Amino acid sequence: MLENKLPGKGTNIFTVMSKMSQDHGAINLAQGFPDFDGPLALRERVTWHIANGHNQYAPLAGVPELREQIAVKVLDLYGCKIDPDREVAVTPGATEAIFCAITAVVHPGDEVIVFDPCYDTYEPGVTLNGGVTKHIAMQYPGFTIDWQRVRDTITDRTRLIILNTPHNPTGSLWGEEDIQQLREVIADRNILIVSDEVYEHITFDCRQHLSLLRYPDLAARTFAISSFGKTYHTTGWRVGYCIAPPALMEAFLRIHQFINFSTQAPMQYALADFLRDCPQHHHELGGFYQQKRDLFCELMAPSRFSLIPSIGTYFQLADYSGISDEADTEFAARLTREYKVAAIPVSVFYDKEPKQHVVRFCFAKHDDTLREASARLCKL
Ligand code: GLN
């Protein structure tokens, strides 16, 4: 018998709910992916590069053209000047980047702080490296961080804080106050940061994404992680990237080279072309998704769900306590089976089972998909 290296972790919830959705012929608002394609011009560039000889290994850190465009982008968006040769790595998805960053710095016995509800890949990365995950639940229903609890949780073994803004699954964002608090709690300590910013372009109501790359003192200790899949509606391509100062990037690449070595070449060339020629795409993404959020909320208004405001990401939380007191995993399964709409139960993102009754819907869908799904949900 094999000893389980990840006790207590079964198949991840996205796989479980997408399969259940398919088995029951439901509309899949569970796993976060768009039901529409990315820009045609971008997809055509991939085809072009495949037809024109860009089919061999890309360099370890990514193709230079793309790293250059990433440097242009973060300077434009966050005023952050990086060296594309020493401070960027393109990875097969943000998930690999998160794993490499954790693996690069966490040694057995090190403690890592995460905020619940917490994305499902963080803790396994810590566990596999012999680290200990310290969960701090955000305050419900605003999903703010209790910074006193962070202070109380930090010890001499704390090596890393993993944060995520805009936040999946809650749709909350970090504010300047959080940045200041983070700065204070890590001052004079040897603590690094993994900043999962994969929804960086998807913020609403004129709210700004506060990338840690905006703050030179914090950026000096941060692995900032981004996703092209979220930005270009191409989650199946698996291309993301990490930005970190040279010493951290060196440690990161030491791991990355032995996991994937490098990332899909034709996609990287295509993304470089598209970033250069069409930067308006990422500038317009927040507005694009805000319309979808507004439509979904309007369609759901007559339902008995109570929606928790989402100001970023393409997720909408819904409290169903007015409908049922079932556990959220039961409720999500019944929703899929009986009403043919799949959702994600939010309790799976917690270390300690929370009291609330909340599910997550993904609104990165055609308007017609949202209309049909909400009509079904209004029947509950
Ligand atoms: N990030 C996506 C979500 O939150 C899922 C990614 C995955 O399926 N592993 O739904």
Core attributes:
380 residues, alpha/beta, four-stranded antiparallel beta sheet, 14 helices, 41% helix, globular, binds glutamine
Structural notes for this entry:
This protein is globular. The chain is 41% helix and 15% strand. The chain contains 14 helices and 13 strands. The strands form three sheets. It has a seven-stranded mixed sheet, sandwiched between helices. A four-stranded antiparallel sheet has the order 9-10-13-12. Strands 1-11 form a two-stranded parallel sheet. Helix 7 links the parallel strand 5 (158-164) and strand 6. The chain is of the alpha/beta class. Helix 3 (64-78) crosses helix 11 (265-277) and helix 4 (94-105) runs parallel beside helix 5 (122-128). The site of glutamine (GLN) has 4 residues, from loops. Glutamine (GLN) is lined by residues 14, 31-32, 168.
Give the SSE map.
Blueprint: H1 13-23, E1 27-28, H2 40-51, H3 64-78, E2 88-91, H4 94-105, E3 111-116, H5 122-128, E4 132-137, H6 147-153, E5 158-164, H7 176-186, E6 192-196, H8 216-219, E7 222-227, H9 228-231, E8 240-243, H10 246-259, H11 265-277, H12 280-300, E9 306-308, E10 315-319, H13 328-339, E11 341-342, E12 344-345, E13 358-362, H14 367-377
Parallel strand pairs: 1-11, 3-4, 3-5, 5-6, 6-7
Antiparallel strand pairs: 2-8, 7-8, 9-10, 10-13, 12-13
Helix pairs in contact: 2-11, 3-11, 4-5, 4-10, 12-14
The protein binds glutamine.
* Shape, per Cα inertia axes: globular
Molecules bound to protein = glutamine
Percent helix: 40-55%
The average pLDDT score comes to 97
Rg measurement, Å: 20 Å
Structural class by SSE content: alpha/beta
The end-to-end span amounts to 45 Å
Largest β sheet strand count, sense and barrel closure: 7 strands, mixed
Question: Ranges with pLDDT <50 over ≥5 residues?
Answer: none
SSE topology string: HEHHEHEHEHEHEHEHEHHHEEHEEEH
Number of helices: 14
| Overall strand count | 13
The share of residues in extended strands comes to: 15-25%
For the largest sheet, list the strands in their spatial order: 2-8-7-6-5-3-4
